[in-house]
User: Fold this.
Amino acid sequence: MQAILDELNEAQREAVEEVRRPVLILAGAGSGKTKTITSRLAYLIGEVGVDPASTLTLTFTNKAATQMRERAMEMLSRTQTSLVYPPLLCTFHKFGLLFLKFHMDKLGRRNSFVVIDTDDKKRILKNFGSELPVSLVASEISRYKNSLISPSEAWAQAEQKNYKQIAKLFEQYEAYLAQNNLVDFDDLLVLTYRILEENPQLCAQTSERYQYIMIDEYQDTNDLQYRLIRKLCSTHENICVVGDDDQSIYGWRGANIRNILEFAENFTDTKVVKLEKNYRSTNQILAAANELIDHNRGRMGKVLESTKGDGKAIVFLESSDETQEARTIATKIRELIDGGVNPKEIAVLYRINALSRSLEEGLNREGVSYKMVGGVKFYERAEIKDLISYLRLVANPHDDFSLRRIINRPKRGLGKVTVDKLLGGAHEARMSMYDYISKYALESVSSKKAGEALVLFVEQLEKLREVANGATYEIIDALEETFGVKKYYSELPDALERVSNIDEFYGLFRDQIKQNPDLSVDDFLNELALQSDQDQIDTESIMIMSVHASKGLEFDHVFVMGMEEGFFPLVGDGSDIEEERRLGYVAITRAGKELTLSYSGSRFYKGRRTELSKSRFLKESGVCEGSLVLEKTTSFKKGDLVKHKIFGMGRIVEISKVGREFKLKINFGGSKRDILASFVEKI
Ligand code: ATP
Ligand code: MG
Assistant:
């Protein structure tokens, strides 16, 4: 065990060894907060002898949970401890899922519920046919739920007509979820809280079960999470939380910074630990981060010193447009990899997902393989959602929502008119659509052909359900054989990509069953719903992601794109400059050795090209002046084949700079000409 404590500095060790009262570690980026609670978990189990099952460690992303689990296990393997079961270390939402799996019946609902994601939620809301923008309705409902406001309370509070309408939709939505036994992300916490609140005895049992609670990134907890934590701590206050007020970036989602600032008042006899050394970033990177965040008011204020030496100067890249920006970043990344840098030590971050498209093009051109975190997620692609819907129906045929999605996919002659008719009929008969179709397929629709298609559809689904009841692993072949989803997509546009997605999904499913032969379709689906895309990270590729998704991660080489006013900081409706600055702080502090900040003079965005000025954050972090490396970029290289409007194709033989532009010497079939870079196109 000593080995674990030896890796820590004194303050970190103090926090690890304090196991009898609440502990708050409030410290800046890269100071070892996550390392400290990971060590504390290992210490509790390996040294104090705490039963792993009495610990609960909560994080915000699956990636963080996985990483922490691996590290804790590695630490434990160095001690004599033999583990009976691994400690529970997961996201808040996963904890909610596990809890509801056992206790949903306390709300009079079956424990075999299905978890839906944001996209599902929007589709449900869309089907209610309101004129209001569906994303507004979805986010308002989420806000209500997280504040534990019921639909009738929302109605009573609403002053404007729109909000009355949202409250009505909220009511309709909740009824729909209950009817179909669906659970959305917010419910994972809301319902868990409700059950604990309504069942004091269960609450006390649960709290006694988890004797030691640890929470990472505590600055981003919201009111509901706080209340849940209080329930979990109702019989003890053995809680250790870590966080950084300067990294609070979920204000827009209801995170309440007061949770961390008032922790010591909320929990009795709290030990407060400060960590003041940064073990991640070089001095230059840290100085830029500190200087930037110093422009915020109302901070706790913290000391943070680098232990990594001065390091390299921050690079400032200036490009004329997003294409050039992407090409330059891609070329630089290629050089790093060719120079022996491990791709997983490289990341490109952006403030908004829309910037990823140009970047992806650049990376593809340069042949740099990357994993994207966020954006159009794998599980949100149409073909994958179809497969998931089929599997959901196998698990629960009364899931009207999934049934509607695939009833005519692949096409079986059941158009909107027929579906609406079935929907109306089922509603009137107070049956699930599936039951209704099973019973009245032939009578319920006007055409004989449609009726027959329905009969066949039900038969096919029944057959599939039988297969699933026997052996889960046979379901994929049976699904494809019966419904031919892959075949269907192989005849549509983008067939190649879609079919390879389907194959990947089938592969994933088989893989899971190989690992756990007892896995039911139900379990598989619920796990899927919880997978944040951070899980897709693999080791062969560089990573590209939004700043939000990068929280808690670290990379030797970080590129931050889009350092322009309007993009970073994002300005406009509801944006908060101090939260933007904290995002800037998070972005910069992800970097260990080298940081590149990239500015593009213009971007094509929302249908038009816009000229952009440099982000104020460049100045505020001292990057636009001082000892930085200034690089004007060009994506052209000697030897590139280029095309000119008049001279046609030629090859670049020389590149030089003239003022703000680049001059290329190009060999057009034997005659060399000097041409400005902006007048030719790369092939
Ligand atoms: P963030 O605020 O970004 O989440 P953090 O405070 O959680 O950062 P960690 O990720 O735990 O910081 O640690 C940052 C890096 O410093 C990690 O690579 C970690 O292994 C290393 N580190 C932490 N403490 C020490 C220490 N005492 N000695 C050496 N390295 C350390
Ligand atoms: Mg951390």
User: Anything to note?
Assistant: The first strand starts at residue 23 and ends at 26. The pocket of magnesium ion (ligand 2) is lined by residues 33-34, 216, 552 (CB under 6 Å). The mean pLDDT is 88.
